[in-house]
Structure formats: C-alpha cells, structure tokens
Amino acid sequence: MLSSLRIELEGEIEKSRNDLLGSLFQGFIMKNIYKGYADILHMSTLHPYSQYVTRVDNKIIWTLNTLNIEAKENIADKIKQIEKVNIKYREKEYKITSIKEENISYKDLVKENYLRDGKRILKVKFLTPTSFKQDGRYVLFPSIRLIFQSLMMKFDKASTDMEVFSKDILETFENNIEICGYKLRSTAFHLDGTKVPAFIGEITVNIKGPKQLVNFANMLIAFGTYSGVGIKTGIGMGGIAFE
Amino acid sequence: MLSSLRIELEGEIEKSRNDLLGSLFQGFIMKNIYKGYADILHMSTLHPYSQYVTRVDNKIIWTLNTLNIEAKENIADKIKQIEKVNIKYREKEYKITSIKEENISYKDLVKENYLRDGKRILKVKFLTPTSFKQDGRYVLFPSIRLIFQSLMMKFDKASTDMEVFSKDILETFENNIEICGYKLRSTAFHLDGTKVPAFIGEITVNIKGPKQLVNFANMLIAFGTYSGVGIKTGIGMGGIAFE
C-alpha cells in the first residue's frame, strides 16, 4: 500500500531553507517512532518512506509518504497523532494545522494505469532538490535513464510481489522517451554541514512507442510521487509531482 | 582578425521574438553586401560571421561578429555605413543609434589568454537560443563535449593558420572540465515557419587540470563570444558571453 500525508504546518521558516527542514523532520520522525522499527530502518537499504518540505502559497507543506503497510503503521499513523513538530534547530516549533491523507494499493496503482490511455506528454516537477549518483559522482542534470532506473529500483524494493526493473526495459525507455522541454537550475541540498549538488525545476517528457510502454511509464511516475526520485528521498530530496 | 559590432537599434520589437529578428537581419546582411561575396557565403560551409539580437535594458542590441578580415571588410564595414535597418517583416524599420566596435587579432587573442592565469571558474551565458546537432538529432542540454567540440571546430575553420581540434584534446577537456552549476530552460528558435529546439540560460564551468588547459579553455570561450556556439550562429542562435 502507498500512503501519502500532506501535512500543513504553521510556523516560521527561513527562506529557501526548506532543505534544512527535510533533514530535521527526518530526525523528528526517528525520535517519534517505535525504536525497534527505527533501528530496522537504519540498518536496511530499503527506505519504505519519503518525505519533503515545500512551500505552497506561503504555507509550509510537509509531505510524508510511506511505501508499504508496515511503514504506514509505524511512521505515518504515528505522526498523524502528533499536534506539534518540535525541531531542535533554534528551538523551532511547527503546529500541524491540517492533514490530508491519500492511500492507494499497488494493485489499484497498476490497474488505474493500465486500464486507461496514459498521457504521452507529461510534465514532471522536481519539487525539492533532486540528484543522482553515477560512478561515485553526483549528476546535476536529469536524464530518462537516471529517472526511470531510480523509479524502477525503488518500485522493486518497495512492492514485495512485483519486479519491473530490467536492463532491456530501461533501454526501451531510453529509446522511446525523451525530455522535450525543461526549466531547471542547479542547487544544493544542505545536509550535516555539507552540500549535496542537486537540481530543481521541471521537465516535459514525450513518450513514444506502444501503449503498454506509455502506461508503464505513467505508472512509474505516479509511483514516484510517493517514492521520490534519485538519492536521499528520506531526508527531503527528490520530491516530484506531475501533470 | 576577430571583429565585433555592437549596434544599438531604435524600433519596436515583439516581446520574446528576438529570434525572428535574427533571421531577418541575416536577410538584411545578404541584401546589403557585395553579391559576389554573398554567393561565396552561400556556397561555403565556412561561416566567417555570427550575429544575434538581444535586449539589454529595453534596448535592442544587434551584435554582428566577423571572424576574419575578409568578412570584416565585406560584412561589418558595409553594415557600419548604414543608418537604418529595413526589415521586410511587417515593414519594420530600425534606426541605428550607436555602433561600438571591437577588434582583436588571433595572435593577440592567443597571447592575451596564455600570458595570464585563466579563470578556473567561468560563467557562460547563452544569450540567444542555442542548440547542437548530434546523430541527426537536436540536443537540448549543453555538455562540455558539445560546447568545446563546437568551439574548436569553429576556431579551426575561422583562423587560417592554427588547428586546435583533436579527439585527444576534446577528451582531456571532458575529463577536466565540468558543469558545476546552471540555470537553463528549453526554448525554440523560429526559423522559416519551423521551430528549432534549443536552450537558453547560463552554466558555470569548473576547469581543473594544468594551467595550459585552463588558458586554452578560456581562449576558446573568448573566441566563442565572436563565433557563437552550436548550430545556426549566422542567423541568431548560439550567442554567448562569459564572466
């Protein structure tokens, strides 16, 4: 099951320091969940959640997504019961003013995407700093390969009974999908005193080829709104939306 | 000899249709130069000039660069004598209010760049829609390879007595120079009723490696402010500046 909490917060935030909140909120989550589960998260390479902070119409929106039922119960359901978010950084406090929840099963996610004609032109927005790592280096520009490789791997890790990643499929994606428009800039995600090179903005992708491929790509991007894309999606990077 | 005319124009221009002026001014040039030379330009693959239109502080600036003495005498020196630019498109007329000229010999260009410590961090601005063609397709993102390959080839074509392009050097550039920051968006350059996919904006490049490489890269980018970068620099695309 995929679950998304859209938490509206009241409080002050330094301009363009949303990234800071991302990692502070991560700490807040870890402090407020069952220690045994926090330990499991620390040890595993599977990150069954993503979270990031954005500002919409001057409101602070904290999006907290979980990618399986266990994570929903252990993380999202716990956070839902909390009224205030206490952040250590400069003793800040954020009051939760509203929470919207959306859930969808993997079965429905797949069904929804395969029973309709997926869009061939999609605008994908990178809401928070996004980055990829390739050959040990950060990659500052998005590419079809990096985006869908990341989404497929996250999908396989998150859903227990489906495996979608294969080199063949990734190559088919690369040959049939192109970035046909974009508005992007580089940025940095601040983390423990270091800066992770990243980008933010939006791209338009054009999906050619058979309908199945179009639907599959649509499904992965819809999944991506829960999982995030690229690295460090657990601490505020790689939040995406699409239209 | 490299020569640059910065021509300030008075007149009306449709917003964000600078690209239109680029190809119209190209027609204006062809009409006003010696026919024999225009024919030579039409036939040759060498484009010994570049020109583009930008808007600076609400003024229309037409930049006309020539890359050798012959082109300077046949194009720039002819255009300098003209007071008005008559454009066929909707019977528009542009009055030339001022002309600034800058000239530099290839010898001095090389000398200037090799006798000083070149900058390792350079901000390169793509002032007008810029594009590359690779394997028959337009490339919508800049890369170190595409930029410097274009500049080296233009340099070799333009200067009669120096050859700088080699695959080895291009690889060294790729391994030592990286785009470390950017702010870019895709755009389209309108041309004869079609749209050429392109990008506009700025990148910051970081040049590592030995001083000679740094100076060489600086020299090529300085040359690029005359030649432009990428495709269709004769009709308004690929105008660059750096700081």
UniProtKB/TrEMBL annotation, chains A, B:
Record protein name field: CRISPR-associated endoribonuclease Cas6
Family matches, as Pfam families: CRISPR_Cas6 (PF10040)
Organism in which the protein naturally occurs: Lachnoanaerobaculum umeaense
InterPro entries: CRISPR-assoc_Cas6_C (IPR019267), CRISPR-assoc_prot_Cas6 (IPR010156)
Annotated NCBIfam families: cas_cas6
A Gene Ontology molecular function term of the record: hydrolase activity, acting on ester bonds
Origin superkingdom: Bacteria
